[in-house]
Amino acid sequence: MNSGTGGGTYNYNDVVNIYADAPDPNMQFNVWTGDTSGIANVNDANTTITMPASNADITATYEAIPGPTDDYASSESTTHGTVSGDYIDTQTSDDTYEVLTEVVHANRSKLEHDWTFSVAGGSTVTFYVEAYKAGTEDSFDFDYSTDGSNWTNMLTVTKTSDDDTDQSYSLPSSTSGTVYIRVIDTNRVNKAKDLDTVYVDHMYIRSE
Fold first, then answer.
1. Is 51 found in the same domain as 75?
2. Which domain holds residue 17?
3. What does the pLDDT read at residue 35?
């Protein structure tokens, strides 16, 4: 018995409880290796072994706990608005912004822009954005969709300066694959024509 407890001298066909040692920090149990034919579940840190006719030499092995996966926008499109920079500028928190400004359409100012992400997925999936806005007429909603048609509001950017702080939203745990993120202005009252701007510094979806 290596890296565990339960070793000793037993008779043929005895059922013995075996326990892997506690893992080191940032590590987790992986599998039992060695003479494993009698082990009930090689993937379980605490399991049993039915003793064979000869000695059984077994070892508990460990692996690093996977870190979070951060996915960034891979493409984008604009329905209404002008854009300075592009989605690459949203991949690092470095005060280099993708800048999106409203345009006048149908007698009112509008902004609508979306990004496409490929999300790894995990037990928790969270959207993060570091952004701020300029102008007094609009704030800016960030929505998500998995089909590009049905949208769910996540958060509203109302900050008027970059405080280097993310806003976040917990997506459903089942979220994975293609995800669309949309920014849209909040004021579409007729004749509201001020051209407000949103500055996006950092934006990603984290799976853990």
1. no
2. 4-64
3. 96
Same domain, 51 and 101: no
d(CA 137, CA 187): 7
Total count of residues recorded for the chain = 208
pLDDT in tens, 142-157: 999 999 999 999 999 9
| CA distances, 103 to each of 81, 111, 140, 182 (Å) | 5, 7, 14, 16
Which tens digit of pLDDT belongs to each residue from 108-142? 999 999 999 999 999 999 999 999 999 999 999 99
Clarify whether residues 55 and 126 are in a common domain: no
Whether 93 and 155 map to the same domain: the answer is: yes
| Cα 38 from chain centroid (whole Å) | 39
Which amino acid does the sequence have at 99? V
